[in-house]
Amino acid sequence: MMKLNHLNLTVTDVRAAKEFLEKYFGLTCGGVRGNSFAAMLDDDGFVLTLMKGAQVSYPQTFHIGFIQENEEKVNEINQRLKADGFEVEPPQRSHGWTFYVDAPGGFTVEVLC
């Protein structure tokens, strides 16, 4: 069996995207190269690399997802983002208890359980 071990995102602001992923989703930074690259690590060995691009144009439905253990955790992250000035709709029941947020750097994040 193969295991996906990394994904690269092109972002307009590596530092802002890095700080967002650290603050709200607990990723840790494994290394940076100036303002053009950061390697973000999760607790399961997955690596999300961030590379600076002049412009970012992902398809409308493109997103990365962070699954949470329960609805309360989804609600907590939603409220933290809202309190910090991010425009987020309240979570709703869809394919899970979920909401989306536009992350700094030009990509979308889904939070769900």
UniProtKB/TrEMBL annotation:
InterPro entries: Fosfomycin_Res_Enzymes (IPR051332), Glyas_Bleomycin-R_OHBP_Dase (IPR029068), Glyas_Fos-R_dOase_dom (IPR004360), VOC_core (IPR037523). The keyword Ribosomal protein does not apply. It comes from the Bacteria. SUPFAM superfamilies: Glyoxalase/Bleomycin resistance protein/Dihydroxybiphenyl dioxygenase (SSF54593). It holds the Pfam family Glyoxalase. Residues 3-113 form the VOC domain. Gene3D superfamilies: 2,3-Dihydroxybiphenyl 1,2-Dioxygenase, domain 1. One of its GO terms (molecular function) is dioxygenase activity. Keywords: Dioxygenase, Oxidoreductase. This is Catechol 2,3-dioxygenase.
